[in-house]
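Friendly challenge for the regulars: who can give me the structure tokens for this chain first? No prize, just bragging rights.
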Amino acid sequence: MSDRLAVLASGRGSNLQAILDAIRAGRLAARVVLVLSDRSDAYALERARQAGVPTAVVPRKGFDSRETHDAAIADRLEQAGVDWVVLAGYMRLLSAGFVARFRDRIVNIHPALLPAFPGTHAQADAVAYGVKVSGCTVHLVDEGLDSGPILAQRVVPVEPDDTEDSLAERILREEHRLYPEVLGWLVAGRVQRLGRITRVA
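First reply, four minutes later:
Bragging rights claimed.
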């Protein structure tokens, strides 16, 4: 029985599509059993429907706090029996209570070489600071902002004429390669955790 993934996405879901494509091609031995969004207009939901994957929308409106919103999402994920929670452009910081319920089973991809440039403006920050390289990072999620243990990184050069958009596009291409690969390590049990250090067996 392959591992069951839930993908949380707030936007267009291109990393979701990369994951679905890797599963379909036999490169990732897992199943996406739920795609959940906080936005009903997220195109990730349409990608899921086209792939025959169940979807759910849990909007922030109507909940009195981030904690109660996250608890409702966590309930849906537990009902779906998920093994891994995969963040793919999910634009909300998860609460400590949510992280505790899925400890070491929440994975995120970030468009920078963490710990450099955490947060939502990573590509613009890289261009503004004038760095020569940037990239993407797959990491486990903890209670902080893009601060969890790093699983893998991929380096992308920053060209002299890069804009935020051009750098973001180049990084995204690498994200689509790296994310399914690392998820494959996780579902195969190849990642060993040594405190805050991870190692691939």
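Residues 164-187 form the longest helix (24 residues). The beta strands are 3-8, 30-37, 55-57, 84-87, 106-110, 133-140, 150-157, 191-194, 197-200. Your move, everyone else.
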